[in-house]
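Two proteins were folded this term; both appear here.
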Amino acid sequence: MSIIKNSATDPNKILPMRYLWARQHYKDGVANNWTPEEVSMQKDVEQWKHPTFLSDHEKRMILWNLGFFSTAESLTANNIVLAVYRHVTNPECRQYLLRQAFEEAIHTDTFIYCCDTLGLDPDEIYNMYNTIPSIKEKDDFVVELTKSIFDPTFELHTDEDIQRFVHDLIGYYIIMEGIYFYAGFAMMLALKRQNKMVGIGEQFEYIMRDESLHLAFGADLINTIKTEFPAIWTKAFQERIAGLIRKAVELEKRYAYDACPKGLLGINAEQFCDYVEHIADRRLERINLPAQYHKENPFPWMSQSTDLSKEKNFFETRVTEYQSGGNLDWD
C-alpha cells in the first residue's frame, strides 16, 4: 500500500486510516473555518477613500498584492482539483485535498469581496499577472514547474514519473504556497500593525493560517512519497530542488523590491527580502534539505498569525482563543 498510484485503493473506503497526519490536517482546517464576509471592511473603505491617509506607494503595494493573490489562488485550486487529486489515491489525503480546494475557493472569494467593497477595477486587478513583470515572472515560473502533472497522459509508472510528480508538488506546495505568498503576507500584515487597512489585513491573516496548513500537508505528502519510494531522492535530484528554490527566492525578492520599494514605517525592502530567505530555509529543512541562507527572522511577529488556536471575535474586534486547532510555527 502506498500514498500514490495505488490501484487497489477503494477511494470510497476511508476507514481504517493509514496516514493519521492527513486526518489531523483536515481537522485543523475545519477548526480554522472562516468566510470573508465576517470581517468588517468599513474602516478600510474610509481609509482607502481618504485623500491622504494612505500614501500612493502604500495604495500601489495593496493593489499589487491583491492582484498577485487573486490569480495565484485560482492557480493553486486548479493544481489540486485537476492534477494532484488524480494521482494521490489515498482516501484520507483526498479528503484533505477536498478541504483545501474549499479553502482556496474561500480565498478567491476574499479577493472578490475586497475588490467589490473598495470599488476597485477588476480588469486591472485580475490582469496584473500579465501587466506587472515581477508578478508575471513568478506565475510563469510556477506554471512551468508544475506543468507535467497537468498533462492528461501523465501517469505514475516509473521512478522517473514519481520524481517528476514530487518535483511538481515541491513547485506547488513549497515554492508557490510556502515562499511566493509570504513577502505579500508580510507587507499586508506590517500595514495592519500600523492600523491601516485592518480588515484586509485580518483576511490575510486567515489566509496565511490556511496556507500554513496547506504547506504542512504538502511537506508531509512529499516526505511520505520520499519514504515509500526512496530511489527517487537522489543527490542530483536534491541539488536540482535546492536550485529551484534559490531561483524562486530571487524572483520573490525582486517582487518585494518592486511592490514595496520605499518600505513601510520602520520596515524596508531589504527586511522583506531577509524574511523571504529565512522562510526559504525553513521550507528546505521541512523536506530534509540543508538551509541556504541562514538569516534570522526580521519579523518575529509574523508567527503569531499562524496560531490556529485563535479566531477573531467579531463583536469585540479582537483575537480570542477558540477550538482545538494545532499551533503551527511556520514563521
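Next, the second protein.
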Amino acid sequence: MEYKASEITAKYLRSRKIPSTACSGCGLGMNHKVVVQAIGELGIEVADVVWGTSIGCAGRQTFATWKGDGFAGTHGRVYAIARGLRIALPPEKKIILTVGDGDAFGIGLMHLIHAARSNADMTVIVNDNLGYQSTGGQYGWTTPQGSHTDSSPYGMFEHNLMSDGMDVMHILKGAGATFLARHVAMDGARAVETVKKAIENKGFSLVHMPYPCPTNFGSRELGSRNQVNIYKWIEKQAAPLGQEKEDTVWATGIWHDASNSRPEFSEFVHETLEKIRRTGSI
C-alpha cells in the first residue's frame, strides 16, 4: 500500500522537523520520503528501527526526524557505531543510516568498507548532493567531472570515485557488500521497491541516491538556482542499468544482489562466542 505524505508524517516522523529546514527545492526530502515509504510498505513499525545519521546536509535534515530511536555519528564514524549496535541489538531490529557522499565515500570510506566486509546487517542510504554543499559547494568524491563548483571554477578535473570508468559500487562489491543499488531522487516508485529489498537483506546493503542541490551545485554548474534546471540536468545524466549512453553518469537500479548469501556479522560473532564457551576453541 502506498502511503500519502500526511500519513507518513503522522506515523513515522516528528512534527517539529516538518517541514524540512533544507534549502528551497532541495531533493533530500524526496530521498527521505522514498526510505520512509519503503519502511511503511514493508509494515515495519517505529519501534522496529534504529535510525543513524551523519554530518552535513543529509545528517542535519534527517537527525531526530524519525519518531523512534536514533543517533548521530561524527564525521564518517556512523558505520562503526552501527556495527557495535548490531551486536547489542536483537537481530530483528533494523538499522537504517542516512549519510552524505562525504561521510560515505570520503572520510568514512574505510569504516564503510569494514561494515561491508563484515556484512553487518544495516541499510545505508547515501544522499549524494554531488559535493560539500553544506560548507559552500566544494567538489567531492562523486562530483561529475567537468562540473563547476565553488572550488573548481574552471571545471572539476580530478579523478574521483565516479570518473574514467571508476564506480564506487565496484569497491563496495569487492569489499563484500551483499546488496548494492543506485537511484536518483526522481526515480520514485522504482527507488521505493529497491530500498525495500535493501532493508530485507540480512546483511550489508547500500543504496546510492544522487539528488538535486539548486542552491550551490545548481547555481555554480548551471548558473541558476532555478529548481527545474537542476532536476532536469540530473534526470538527463541518469539511465537504467543496461540502457546507459556514452554520457550517462549514473546507471540506476540494482547493481548487485547477493542477499542472504554470506554470514551476517552479529550472528557470526554470537555463534562463534557460543562455540568458544562450549568447546574452548573456534
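The radius of gyration is 19 Å. The longest strand covers residues 250-257. These notes refer to the second protein only.
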